[in-house]
Design goal:
Elements: H1 3-19, E1 26-32, E2 35-37, E3 40-44, E4 48-53, E5 59-63, E6 69-72, E7 77-81, E8 86-91, E9 99-105
Parallel strand pairs: 1-4, 3-9
Antiparallel strand pairs: 1-2, 4-7, 5-6, 5-8, 8-9
Length: 106
Amino acid sequence: MKPRHLASIALAVVLLSIVVPARAATMQIIMDNLVVSPAETSAKVGDTIEWINKDVFAHTATAKSGDFDVMLPPKKSATFVLKKAGIVDYYCRYHPNMKATLKVAP
């Protein structure tokens, strides 16, 4: 292959990596038997957290920082898109012993 063609291919690869954004992920967190699992989750800004309440009573995912307060009715799920980086500790307002941490990278 000619050097000019290799340069064109290399440029195309670079441009594609810039134009195509990284795909956001969805992380599932289970609330069952008054336990949050996993208790620590790593994610990135733009990712979605889906809390799934498998218990027969309501829970919340309430950030100590005030960043979110998600209501989880019994046997239902709810989602939240992460908007900023940092470590976010959260808990259930109804069951304060249910605690977890989100580590959100930029």
